[in-house]
Specification:
5 strands; alpha+beta
């Protein structure tokens, strides 16, 4: 029987996972991350010569689990201070068309630029070189440009009100959301 794993279900699962780590005094849940499998093409390590074109199915037996454990080369315990909820990184690029934030992208109403059926899969937000995140409220859409127009002006402002990023008249209206702290990036890298 088919099942629908909705975006809201995924968000709820992520929130539940984060809460399981950050709840005060919770010593029941221990999570670890590891790196391993230095030779991804080794069949003994569960690898394949054709991973780029033929992704193997998920491993789900005791033999395969033991094989994975044998390839671990580093491991770290994850605490609540190590957890961040993130989204795909979409860098602002000049000349690229971005989606507008719209709540009604579905299989019956695909996003006009990326042709996806979900807001979460569309490119409606960007990050600039200064680690500032913006959401696109208008992308220059008009009767002649139903998909929108290329973005010319890089959003760099930190105003609380939505506004155009520059004076080119590209038709984009951006809303500043937040700035990612460099310390947060370094923490996730280390």
């Amino acid at each position: 029987m088919p099942a629908i794993i909705s975006d809201q279900f995924r968000i709820m699962n992520a929130e539940t996972f984060v809460k399981s780590l950050v709840s005060v005094g919770n010593t029941n849940n221990n999570y670890y991350v590891f790196i391993g499998q230095p030779n991804s093409s080794s069949p003994q390590a569960g690898g394949s010569e054709t991973w780029s074109s033929n992704v193997p199915p998920p491993l789900d037996s005791f033999d395969e689990e033991n094989s994975i454990k044998e390839t671990i080369i580093a491991m770290r315990k994850v605490s609540g201070l190590d957890i961040r909820r993130v989204v795909r990184k979409i860098n602002w690029e000049p000349g690229k068309i971005y989606e507008m934030y719209k709540h009604d992208y579905t299989v019956y109403n695909l996003s006009p630029v990326t042709n996806v059926a979900s807001l979460y899969n569309s490119n409606y937000y960007v990050i600039n070189d200064d680690l500032r995140v913006y959401i696109c409220l208008q992308n220059g859409t008009n009767p002649e440009n139903r998909r929108g127009r290329p973005s010319i002006d890089k959003p760099e402002f930190v105003d609380l009100e939505p506004r155009p990023a520059g004076t080119s008249g590209d038709g984009y209206v951006w809303k500043y959301l937040y700035t990612i702290k460099p310390a947060e990036i370094i923490k996730l890298i280390l």
